Hints:
mainly alpha, Rna Polymerase Sigma Factor, Chain: A, Arc Repressor Mutant, subunit A, 2 domains, two-stranded antiparallel ribbon, 8 helices, about 0% strand
Amino acid sequence: MELIDHLSDKAKKDYMLVQRALNDKDQRAYTELMGRYKDSVFYMLLKMVNNSDDAEDLTIETFGKAFKRLDQYTPQFAFSTWLFKIASNHSIDFIRKKRIRAISIDQGYSNEDGEKYVIPVKEDSLDPEESMQKDERIQRMRDVVEKLKPRYKRLVELRYFEEKSYEEISEILELPLGTVKAQLFRARDFMFELMKTTKGNF
């Protein structure tokens, strides 16, 4: 136990859950880890991106990244520290990409002193191999979505394939906005569980 003696009791519990998830493939351990930190990660991301829809999407993506790299975690630091670092980096990357998309490549932008800058943005086209890999990932994602219950499947299709906003989904399905968000978050939980049993990366 010397390996984790420096950790708090809560961090030691997290470490045990990580070990159960990795060594025993215990699905409940994954679920418990997510339950312990889902709200904290969400509110941290919400402060960074200032948009609840984006924060919810980034939260589930953060757990997806963390669980995919779980074998890289070491108890040198608390699991929460490691998880929040992943969330922070993912959010920063999201903000950077969003900012670049928002800036006109031709017009550039001006700083507070009125100095104008033009950002050279790399061509966003994919080479044939990258395009094929992207298509394969999309197909694997669709295969996972097909396994969802009908109500969850429709939510995911509207949100991720048709890129509807939460408000638009609420109107289309005639559901309260809170219900849409709650069910979509649950749908992503189901998808994550299915992804863990599906070969290939997403």
